[in-house]
Structures are given as C-alpha cells and as structure tokens.
Write a structure and sequence with these properties.
The structure is a homodimer of 433-residue chains. By secondary structure, the first copy, chain A, is of the alpha/beta class. The first copy, chain A, has 3 domains: 5-135 and 304-324, Rossmann fold (3-Layer(aba) Sandwich), CATH 3.40.50.720; 139-300, Dihydrodipicolinate Reductase, domain 2, CATH 3.30.360; 343-427, Alpha-Beta Plaits (2-Layer Sandwich), CATH 3.30.70.260. Chain A contains 14 helices and 17 strands. Chain A has helices at 14-25, 27-34, 66-69, 85-96, 106-122, 139-146, 161-173, 177-187, 195-198, 201-215, 234-242, 304-324, 362-372, 402-414; strands at 5-10, 38-44, 61-62, 76-79, 100-103, 127-128, 152-158, 225-226, 245-256, 259-270, 282-289, 293-300, 347-357, 377-384, 390-397, 400-401, 418-427. In chain A, strand 14 (377-384) and strand 15 form a beta hairpin. The longest helix of chain A is centred in the last third of the chain and has 21 residues, at 304-324. At the A-B interface, helix 1, helix 2, helix 6, strand 12 and helix 12 of A face helix 1, helix 2, helix 6, strand 12 and helix 12 of B. Strand 12 of chain A pairs antiparallel with strand 12 of chain B, so a sheet runs across the interface.
Amino acid sequence: MVKAISIGLLGLGTVGSGVVKIIENHQDKLMHQIGCPILIKKVLVKDIEKERRVSIDENLLTLNPSEILEDPEIDAVIEVMGGIELTREYLLKALANNKHIVTANKDLMALHGPELLAAASRNNCDLFYEASVAGGIPILRGLVDGLSSDRITKLMGIVNGTTNFILTKMSKNGSAYEEVLREAQELGFAEADPSSDVSGLDAARKMAILATLGFSMNIDLADVKVRGITEISEEDLKYSKKLGYTMKLIGLASRDGDKVEVSVQPALLPEGHPLAGVNNEYNAVYVYGEAVGETMFYGPGAGSLPTATAIVSDLVAVLKNLRLGVNGKSAVSPQFSKLLKKPAEIFAKYFIRIHVKDEVGVLANITLLFAEHGVGFDKILQLPLKDKDYSEIVLVTHTASLRDYECILQKLESYEMVKGIESTYRVEGENIL
Amino acid sequence: MVKAISIGLLGLGTVGSGVVKIIENHQDKLMHQIGCPILIKKVLVKDIEKERRVSIDENLLTLNPSEILEDPEIDAVIEVMGGIELTREYLLKALANNKHIVTANKDLMALHGPELLAAASRNNCDLFYEASVAGGIPILRGLVDGLSSDRITKLMGIVNGTTNFILTKMSKNGSAYEEVLREAQELGFAEADPSSDVSGLDAARKMAILATLGFSMNIDLADVKVRGITEISEEDLKYSKKLGYTMKLIGLASRDGDKVEVSVQPALLPEGHPLAGVNNEYNAVYVYGEAVGETMFYGPGAGSLPTATAIVSDLVAVLKNLRLGVNGKSAVSPQFSKLLKKPAEIFAKYFIRIHVKDEVGVLANITLLFAEHGVGFDKILQLPLKDKDYSEIVLVTHTASLRDYECILQKLESYEMVKGIESTYRVEGENIL
C-alpha cells in the first residue's frame, strides 16, 4: 500500500464541503493521477457540533488551527475559510512550516497576493489559487500556461455571478433593480448583504488577480476603478436593447504599450459579442492576445462543487509537483513594473442619456460641445418625455479619451438647457469584432 | 550570458512561419519565463529556395532531417510538417535521441498517439500536442490540468472551422452548400480539396484525441462514427430555425458509467445553447463535468499565429520541465479500457423530415409506428408541398435509443405512403440546459 498524502482543511462551509465530496467521490481518478491516496487529516471549524452539508468523521474536526498549521505530517493546506487578516496569518504560518497552499480566497489574494507568493517561493512551497477567480473555469491556468507564449493585451470578464444574474433578469423581464435583487436573494444567487457584489468590489478583486497574471505586473485592488450596478435603470436597459447592445458588469483590463487600465463598470456590449450571451449566474473571461486573437473561457463562477473542482485540481498539481520534488518552482514573478494609464490615455466609446429642455437648437448645441472636443457620434436618439417641456436624448459617441469625456460631462451639467445627465456607460467590444 | 536552448523545426509552412514569428517577437516574455533564450538552430524544409512568409537566415534551412533528429545540441523538436507515416518515423527517431516533441499534427496523434506517447515516456521525453485540437484554444490543458479533479461525462465540440464557416453562412443567408463552399474557398477558409473537412474526418480525428484525454481511455479514429455536412439542404436549415434550433457540425463524446460513444455529425442545438452562438471559423469545446457542470472554451480553431501560440506555449512547458529536470513525467496513461456503447445504449432526440402521400390517416400511421417503439414527439409540423399529392412532415422526437430509431427508419422506408425520408439529424444539448 502506497503511503497517503495528508492534507488539512481550513473551513468547512459551502466550498469546503464540496472539496470533501470531490476528494471522496473521485478518489480513484485522483489516485490514478498522483499515484497515492489523498487523506483529509484535519479540518478547522468554528463549531464542532454544527450540522454539515457533508458527512465527516467528527474526530477530524478541530477548533485549534495549530493542529493543522503545525502538524509535520500535513503536506498541503486547503484554505476555504474566507476572511483576510487572520487567514493571512494562518497561511504565512503554514508556509513557514513548509506546507503547500491551495486557496479560493480572492479577497486575500487581491490584497496580499504578492506577500504570500513571495513567502511561498522562499519556502519552496506551491501556492495555487485557481478557485479565487471565476469558480470552476480554469482561467488562471489558461492565462499562465495555455497562453504563456502570447502577449495578452485585453481581458474582459463577467466575473460576478450575482450581478450577472440580476442584469440578465432585468434585461429579460424589464424589471427594476430592487425587485430582481429580492428574487436573487430568495433563489440564493445573492447574499443577504449583497453590497460587495453589487458595488463591483468582488469583481474588482478578481480583476486585480487576472490583470496581475495577464499583464505580468503587480496590480493592486486600489488600482482598479470600480462602479457597481445599483444605479442602472430599466430605461437604460430599454435603450441599450433598442440600440443593439447588452448591458453587463464588465471587468476590464487593457494594455497599450507599457501602460494598463483596470476597471469594473456596467458596460454595453454589441449583441453579437461572445460575452453578451453569457447569462444568469454564469461567468466568462474573454482574452485578447496579440497572436491568438480572441478566446473565451466560460463556466460556473461560483457554487460548492464547481469551486471545489478548481481547488482539488490545484491540489492535484501540488501533489504531482510533490512526487517530482519540484514544488515552489512554477510561479513566475511579475516581469514589468506597474504603469497605470492617465485619463488622457484611456479611450472608449460612451452611451449617454440626457434630459434637456425641448427647445430649438438644443441638440445642435450639445453636438457642438462634443465636436469642440473632437468627439463624433455613432448613434443618436431623441424622444419626447411625459413632461412636455423636456425631451430625452440618447447618444453613443465615437471613441473619446476619458479626459475629454469628463470635461464634456462637466460642461453639459453647467448648461442651462440640460435638466440632467440621467446615465452614462462605456461601450466595449466593438472595435475588436 | 545564459546558454540558449536550441530547438529544431520540421516544416516551415503556415504554422511553422507563425512559430518563428512568435519566438522572435515574444523572446523577452519567453526568456522571463524559462530563464534563457530560445534559439532556432535548424529548420527542415522541402525546398531551400522557396519564398517564405517569414524572413529567416537561409543557413538555418536544411533538406536533411538528420541535421535535426541527430544533432545532440538540439533539445526539442517542433513538428509542423504534417503527414503521417514519414512524420511518425521522424518523431520516433527524435524521441530515441532524447528530444522533446511539440506537434500540431492531429492526423498523426489520432492514429499513432499511444505509440508515440509510449516512446516519449520510455525516453523520459515530453510530447505535447495542444495545437492539434482547436488551434489557439488551450483545451487539452483545460481537460488534463484544469479539470483534473472532475469526472468528465460529455464533450461537445465545434472543432472544424471550415464546416462551421459554411454552416454559419448557409444559415444566415439561406444559401446552398455548393455556393457557400465556393465562397469559403475564395476566402481561404476551405481548401481546394475540402474533403477531409466536409466529410467530418478532420473533426473525427480531433474528437478521438479529446475523448482519449477526457475519458482517460484510448479512443481510436476507427471508433468515431462520422457523418459530414455535404447532405445538408437549405430546407433542413430553414426548418431547424423555425423550430428554434441551430445546425452545427458537432463532435460528441459522451460517457454513461463505463461506456462511451464518440461521433461527429451535423446536429441541432437549441438556440440558447452556448455552442449555438459559435459562428464563422471559430471553434469551441463544451465540457460537461459531474462536479463543475457546464464549461466552454472558445477561440480561433486554426490560423498561423493562433496555432503557433499553442505550439510555443507547449514549448515553454517543455523548457520549464527541462530546467527542473522533470521532462517525460507529466503524461498520465489512460486509466480505463475502452468500452464502446452499442446502438441500444445510445440515446438521443431526433429531427426527421419526411415526404408522404397527402392522404387521410398518414400522420396517424407514422406516429403510431413511433409509439410502438415507445417514442413520443416534442414537435410536429405538417406542410403542403408544391406537388399537391404529397406533403412534408417534420418531427422532433423525444429521447429514443439508436437501435429503436434505426428500426423505425427502416420500417418508414418500407411504407407505401412514405415517398422518402428527406433528412434526419440528432438534436443535442436540450437535456442539459
């Protein structure tokens, strides 16, 4: 009998239970690949008595992290407890004790990724985190291994299932944000406190991780400009559709020369774009490489078993490395220093919806303002409003720099004939199709 | 100065030129990852004088394969010459001389994959072939590494760009097969002799490779049932659309318990299925795993630079292994012996279009025949034909075994009231949505 490899689990919630299930149910396949059984030796929990989603020997449960972090027989630690500061301490201790790490913790990796990866490297340990971005989709591997020879110039991701579910339902049924959010909470697609999802923060963490790997440059969470979905109205979705677009919460990372931009915002995609068809709770990451062109990775972005698949696949990689004695050698440190684009260097097309006084010459004045900044239009719609003194103008611009566009917005707001800028969104994915 | 790693190229056609370009243009990124420069030491060609798509020092070109296969300074060989028997000999010789191999050759891998992989393993050599399936899409890595912990139960692939281009144009414009084929040839999306594409053979080779990896079972080309696109009529596409389906040439590999089915055929997918939106020359592989659920990998299926990206990414993997001294250790031999499903074990829904005599009771008789075999219907259309003595019936069945369905087809053909079975196709992707 070959000796089993022992692992410890930090956490036994939704994802942790999935990990236990996969290791049990797929033991044969795992053993065929790594040549020995995988034994879960200890599981850190907060409450021993709590009812679990998975049946597990109570003797494996512990309240004491040292029973995992300091057990010399444990080779690898799977972190599925969440949290940031305490978790960081635990993982640093595990690495100091030469334990390999697999984590699903995007919050942690987005904030302390470089520190943890450096600690892993010092201790000849692997630290893998495929599950931290887009659940079951093997996108980090796709970027790091599959496209290792290419130069990635753009990443666009639908990397938050909750907001994609909400936007899909709003678009399909013409329902209001609050109503769909309630439905999503009832169905378990949104948490009781959905703020980190709907504010875009969750997506921003994932984009920091993706951009760091895709551009080989340390991108911090603070570098990501974030806007959430809470202000999107039914009108915005109605006009998007009318103009041939689909609204998605898009994580965007783009590179021109040495400089990059990383952001998360609701954006309009042309209906035929591969990302426009990614619906409900699904995730997808679209990758544009200089040589490969367009590729896309699609799948479930969350959920117990999909996320656990990514974790156990990472564990298989750790254990294969262990057999070959090459742990801690696969990470490649960032090649470039970080250079962020300034607003004058960020170019995009914009959708803007304005309420204006219904007077002669208003549209002429507005288009003149854009023209003075060298910005033309792709699409123009003017419609009457219920209040007959005002009308609604919807414009889609040609490409403009963010600096020019912000300047235009400021001036528009100061115009007496403009009642208000109702909304504005970036339009993405058109130049590439 | 770190010593360069030397490689040899067999072939300098479309893909070979792409490999040379990527190694030149991305030398910095490659060097950052593998820690030393990559030097192309020799390139086997058929004609030294021929004009090339890439500028290359003529002294590197050779007509003599031994200058690559027997040069002890060459560490890895990239095979982009195509062909089968001679190529097999070359690669076996290269492996015997301890050279690692990267190949894009699906014909070779579908026929002689197991032999070549065994030879690689004996010689502690890597043999990678990501580029052989779906060009720039890192699907083999996705299956082998990304989903290593899961049990794959179904693979559906649009893995031939030529036929996908033809079917997309036929569907969009309502044009006839021959007309679109001519257009595809003019645009370079179909070869002068398109037979291996349109017959489904090319897709079958790729499915043999995908099924072998996905199911960990040696699937031979001869195990793949193949039907091409040459018989698809404009009527078939018209009715498909009317019933809410999109026609695609689908490579299908499915597993129930220990038994598998691998086939290539035109099939109808519901319009909302992720594969239904894969258009023109693009490829995609949809993977269904027990734990992960649905995932899809999308991208360019062919072309000089996309295919070369996959090759050079494989080369990076070889060279990283070389640095760690672990070449030849990553291949996992098939876990299961091959068990193919019998017709009674293959279940699907079918679309069938029949011309029948326009008489009372005909539809009743036909539906009765299906009912006698326990097969019901999802959708039924009956329409008059120009020839008023006949009418057209289009049926979509519920799930039936292939044995029952073939039996029904035989009996239908013997019915005096049936003028002819115009066409029949599998309907896929409905049970999973």
